[in-house]
Specification:
The complex is a heterodimer. Chain A is mainly beta. Chain A is 8% helix and 36% strand. Chain B folds into two domains: 33 residues; 142 residues, Nitrile Hydratase, Chain A. Chain B has a two-stranded parallel ribbon with strand order 1-4. In chain B, strands 2-3 form a two-stranded parallel sheet. In chain B, helix 8 packs across helix 9.
């Protein structure tokens, strides 16, 4: 299991990368910054599982909370509205 | 599967499902009986399972705390197995309204709500609820005032989400069973509110 690098409350930035394959990081959130809401645990890397490999060592998985107004420049709604997305550690950088 | 209604050709994905299933059966990986048993099990589970969890949380504050801290363990307490998945329960309050989506595919808390409705799997819902949740909720007849924060939860990986709706006014003194009767599937996805009716 890969050690968790981030803690709840940490500001993180999602990598802006476009590799091929089975990627569980949605396009719309790549390049966005948010705050770690919780550590979900560690799970086999789905990008590896999709290639029939073990996905081990397990990657820490986080729920990261983003401000909707930052994700969508034309967002219409409350300034406090958020979107929470589960993101694996190897997609996150410290901000 | 029994054929009812008028004939329609199989769609691409239906054809792929039939082809794969027949191959697996032919090669002895699974039997038709096993496939039927799993399909029957999936169909036998419905939103009344989630409704039991919500009604218990509405009537037992200690249970609610445990449910919000560890959804999977709290379901197991009620004898509901939630195999291989971590359940995160998010609570609606007068200040916060939660709604669930899976933008990448159609992840859904099947163990508590049964099979997902077609709209949940539609590209329209999946694309729009993340960027204009208030407009999408309004289409369901759910108008959330701007003063209430909306939290969208995109189930992109190993968690599954269920919304704990607010207990409606006018249900004081109701039994857990009666309360469970007003907890709808849509209120546990977050596109509707639980209503006393």
């Amino acid at each position: 299991m890969v050690e968790a690098k981030f803690q709840p409350g940490d500001r993180v930035k999602v990598m802006k990368a476009y590799p091929l394959g089975h990627i569980r990081t949605p396009y719309y959130i790549r390049g966005c910054s948010g705050v770690v809401e919780r550590i979900c645990g560690a799970f086999p890397n789905p990008e590896e599982l999709a290639q029939m490999r073990s996905g081990l060592p397990a990657q820490p998985l986080y729920r990261v909370r983003f401000s909707q107004a930052e994700v969508w420049p034309d967002y219409r709604g409350g300034r406090g509205d958020t979107i929470d997305v589960e993101i694996f550690q190897h997609w996150l950088d410290k901000e | 599967m029994s054929e009812l209604g008028k004939y329609a050709p199989l769609t691409y994905f239906q054809l792929m499902e039939v082809s794969l299933r027949e191959l697996l059966v032919e090669k002895g990986v699974v039997s038709n009986a096993e496939v039927d048993a799993v399909a029957a099990d999936m169909k036998s589970r419905g939103p009344e399972r989630g409704a039991r969890v919500v009604a218990r949380a509405w009537t037992d504050p200690a249970y609610k705390r445990r449910l919000l801290a560890d959804g999977t363990a709290a379901c197991e307490e009620l004898g509901l197995d939630v195999p291989a998945l971590r359940l995160v329960v998010v609570e609606n309050t007068p200040e916060v309204h939660n709604v669930i989506v899976c933008t990448l595919c159609s992840c859904y808390p099947r163990m508590l709500l049964g099979l997902p409705p077609d709209w949940y799997k539609s590209s329209n819902y999946r694309k729009r609820v993340v960027r204009e949740p208030r407009a999408v909720l309004a289409e369901f007849g759910t108008r959330i005032p701007d003063s209430v924060t909306i939290r969208v939860h995109d189930s992109t990986a190993d968690m599954r989400y269920m919304v704990l709706p607010m207990r409606p006014a006018g249900t004081e003194g109701w039994s857990e069973e009666r309360l469970a009767g007003i907890v709808t599937r849509d209120s546990m996805v977050g596109v509707a509110l639980a209503q006393a009716s």
